[in-house]
Amino acid sequence: MVVGELAHERDVVIIGAGPGGYHAAIRAAQLGLTVTLVEKEELGGVCLNKGCIPSKVFAHAAQSMTSVQHMNDMGIEWAHVAFHPGKLQQYKTKVMSQLRQGVEALCKANKIEVMKGTAFFLAENRIGVEKGDAFDVYRFRYAMIATGASLVSPASIHVDHKRVLNAYSIYGLEELPEHLVVYGSDYIALEVATSFRAFGVNVSLILEADDFAFDSSINRELQRLLKKMKVKVYKNSRLIKAANDGEQVTVSLSVKEQETVTIEGSHLFVSCRLQANIEELGIERLDLERTEEGFIRVDAQSRTTLPHIFAVGDVTGGPALAVKAIKQGKVAAETMAGKQSEADTTFLPTIVHSIPPIASVGLTEEEAKEQYKDVRIGQFPLTGNGYASIIGQKDGFIKVISDADSEMVLGVHMMGAGTIELISSGVIGLEMVGREEDWKFPLYPHPSINEGLLEAVEALGAEAIHLPPLKQKGAVSS
């Protein structure tokens, strides 16, 4: 085909079928737009095939392993408990396949043209798609870049995906490591460390910073629980080099810039920075503004500097979270259809499927004290929650932060069973600018972990029923 001789006409062409891309495609189709969705690998993108879903399969299996003792306490006993990584890989593959089939069926039901191929811009209104020996040209009203980002390893580390692993390969292991060294302080590193420890793997965790980037109360509880789990933690540590001889990995660290420590492990996991996937897009033909880090700059509607071209997800920088990509994708599709829509990540929740899980939204205690004259802190331990006792998962707490003058809730931080589902209540409450009385007025189901949120809010004013008076006296902070 001669470029420009014949072009397929579409309202929307989307490059990339990860969470942002396929949500945008379906939403645009719902609004009556004709859509072509191009993906060079698998529907669902990195999230479904390499990241979110595989990691949560492992996290769920790890959490199930930790519940064995509780099952025995309830009289449900097994003569022998064994873990087979190969069978977990089969289960992971089945789950991923089912989810991909679901996405395929939804695209078909919404009359979305799905193409497997490599797409790139030919001009500001045309995209070419290569499918093997075939080549098609699409003329569009709107285009969306949803190509995500790739992992970039630290300069001193070679990831071979056998002994030295990253977030895409760690969950492909068919055999458990003897000693896993985890280098990173993000949520992925924490999930890896706690999941593999639950499987019985010896784990060493290396943090470059003083601590994780959570609220200080979560960091303190994490320190206690990691020690309880016998995870060796090295803080303020910089990786100097990692030697991989094919049998083991030897890691050299500079700890607090004072001493050098050597750790020998069977495997090394490395958290990596992200680099926008834009090299093959032909965007040099377009006048698109990029950030200093090389990501595509967008506004609250996910428009680029060309108003008819949008970008969503990891390719736009910021937190690399599927929830952000999904919201951006829907907002972009609605904007294309002429609707008033906006993506605001002020109250973007952070969740970690660690053991126990972590969920957080809004200001930390430290941030609140910097921004407000007086703040109040209410914290309720799950040891005081009846349902946590029933399910045998009493580690953790729920913490609520408010402005003492207006009683407006500023942040919610949780750690423990059920908190990942419960954090949505925190997001909604913050979005609605709820004050303490707004959070206390509704009825919370009993027995449930939800009651811990109520008691944390009540603790702001020393009203929590299941906290002794002495502990509640410290609820007010300035």
TrEMBL record:
The keyword Signal does not apply. Its EC number is 1.8.1.4. Its cofactor is FAD. Residues 349-456 form the Pyridine nucleotide-disulphide oxidoreductase dimerisation domain. GO terms for molecular function: dihydrolipoyl dehydrogenase (NADH) activity. Binds 1 FAD per subunit. Belongs to the class-I pyridine nucleotide-disulfide oxidoreductase family. This is Dihydrolipoyl dehydrogenase. It comes from Anoxybacteroides rupiense.
